[in-house]
Every structure is written in C-alpha cells, then in structure tokens.
Amino acid sequence: MTDSKLDKLFSPIEIAGLELPNRVVMAPMTRSFCGESGVPTEAVASYYAARAAGGCGLIVTEGTVVNMTDARGYSGIPAICNDAQQAGWQQVTDAVHRAGGKIAIQLWHTGRLGHSRAMQGTQPLAPSALAADGMFKDFGDRETLAVDIPYERPKAMGFEQIEQACGEFAEAAGRAKAAGFDAVELHGANGYLIHTFLNAESNQRTDEFGGDMIGRSAFAVGVIRAVRAAIGDLPLCIRLSQHAVNDYGWVTWQNQEELEVCLQQLKLAGVDFLHSSGYRLEAPAFADGESFVGALKRLSGLPSIGSGGITYSNTTAESFAGGLAELTDPVVCESALEQGECDLVAVGRAMLANPDWANKVGGGNWRQLVPFTAAMLGSL
User: Fold this and answer.
1) Which positions are annotated as active-site residues?
2) What is the pLDDT of residues 36-90, one digit of tens each?
3) CA-to-CA distance for 199 and 191, rounded, in angstroms?
4) Residue closest to 228 by CA, chosen among 300, 165, 169, 301
5) What sign has the CA pseudo-torsion 115, 30, 87, 103?
6) Structural domain 4-378, CATH architecture
7) Is 26 helix (H, G, I), strand (E, B) or coil?
8) Which of 71, 168, 294, 339 is deepest in the core (most CB within 10 A)?
C-alpha cells in the first residue's frame, strides 16, 4: 500500500510512450567501476537491477561516454562505442527488465573537464581553448582526490571534430537502442562538452556554433538531430543545469529569455523531456523566482525531471567525498510534483544507500532509510 501523503510521487506517468509505474527516478551518478575497458560487469548489472527491484520507476545510468579517447576524461567510467561494451550494457538492461524496471542510458562527453591523465595523453576538447577553473578530481583514480591537478587547456574543436562528435553520440545511441534501453538521455549539464557550447563564458566562438543563444545551441541541436535519427521514436531526454559541477558561480543563462530560446531549439530538434541538475530541487533558475526545473517545464512545455541535493557551498566532488548524510525528503518531492514544477523526481545518494528507497518510502517505512556516507562509494 502506498503512503497516501505521497499519492502524486507514486502515481503512474507516461512520457513519449514510456509507461512508468511511479515518478521516482534514480539519478545518474558516476561510479567508476568499469575498468580500463569501459565494459559494464555483472556487478554493475546487479547494482542497477537492485534499484529496479526496489521500486524505482525509471533508472538513469551513470554517464556513459561515446568514445574511448577525448570523451573519456575520468578513469573507470563506462562507454558504449564497441561491441563488448554494448554486450555489457545488454546484460544490464536484461537484469533491470527481469526485475520489472525501466532504464535510460545517459550519453556523455566530458569535454574540458576531462584530463589527459585519464585519456592516454589525449588533449581535452571544448568549443574554445579555455581551461575550466578549479582542480581535476577523478573518483576512478583516488590519487587525484588528495592532490591539486589544475584543469588543462583544451583544444578548440574544428568543424570536422564537431561533426565527428555528433556522429559518435548517434552511434552510441544506436548501440543503446540495440542493447535494450528504454530511453536515451544526453548529458548537457554540469560543465561537460554539450554544456560548454551553451555557456557564453566557455564558448567564445565567432562562427555558427557561437555568438548568440541560437548559435551556442547549435552543437546541442546537431547532437539531438543525429541521435534522433539513430533511435527513431525511442524517448529522448537532455539533462541541463545552470552551473558547472566544478563551479557554482559559472552561470549559463542570464535570464529566462535566453533559456526559452535555447529550450525551444532543443525541443524542435527532437527532445521529448528534460532533466534538471542543481544543488537543490527548489533552487531558483535566476536570482529569485521559480525553480530551475519549473522554468524548464514552463518555458519548454515538455515534461521534466527535478533533482538536486548537493550542498550549495561545496562542489559535487566535495559533497560526495565529504560523507554528507542524504536521505532525500519525499515530502519535498511530493510538493514539487503537486505544484506542477516537475513531473518526476530524481533521487541520488539516498538511493545509493537505499536500493529500495522507493518501496520503503511508498510503504511509509521512512524510518528504515539509511543515510548516505562516503564509505558507500567504495563498492557497488
């Protein structure tokens, strides 16, 4: 029996033909357990299947890179660009489906936030040759967590590299469809490659991929169109954020007019729904006013996933490594849904600690939830 105070959170929903039993989403979280090969293992399959069995309506995988060179900026992260990796992901989707779940893959290019240390000496790529602020941290290489390694100056992408990147996203998406995924999500948030094209600070190009908001949206539009052609009518999502994972002072859209122009471009290109990323679910899109996810939904007219549980004063890396307790308040989730700010809610660290978070919360057994601690990152 579902807790009556959470009727909306545990009500079914259909998005672009994808039927979900509830509105609980497992947020994408980098785990770095796929070794040098980037192939998901049986342990990875069991990890995701446990969340499906635990009642989660939709699982979004950790970021999965589209090539093994300039896209794979961290150690141990998964990929889907060859047959072995595709077969590994088939093992994951089969396990999730046997457990009664639905799963989307998040496709990722780390862009300038990657490092040659993790890419066999390959220089990171970006729209412009501008290094990110801050220090590189790699959860797959624990040594980087204890030392200061500045971000590198990336290589500005030429037209051929832009075309190649669009093709790599499309090929990865096609492989994901063949591997049995129920949906595809593009990682357009947190300062990674797609996001850096959207931001005027990191994108200082003067060609058709830079300049005004339409120009800065052109790379994302190209990726979306290429992916849509590869996956047909499979549901397609893009994750967006105002800020970078390494810098909450790095702002992408200065006002709602810019955001609306961008969202309409992405919608016309073929996106079905949106996924916000932020430090709090209720965090405003701009200095004041509605939440970022609320603005995404209103300005696009598309269904949206709300998320956010990272402490504002920290970077994401510090929040994860610092061992902050995280349970995720289901009442806040329910309120956001009831107020129409979003259509689904993503749960992150709380679901690492509690694979059956959805079943426990839906059954009214909140007191059985275990807080997240950094020690939980050491294993799947």
Assistant:
1) 192
2) 999 999 999 999 999 999 999 999 999 999 999 999 999 999 999 999 999 999 9
3) 9
4) 169
5) negative
6) Alpha-Beta Barrel (3.20)
7) strand
8) 71
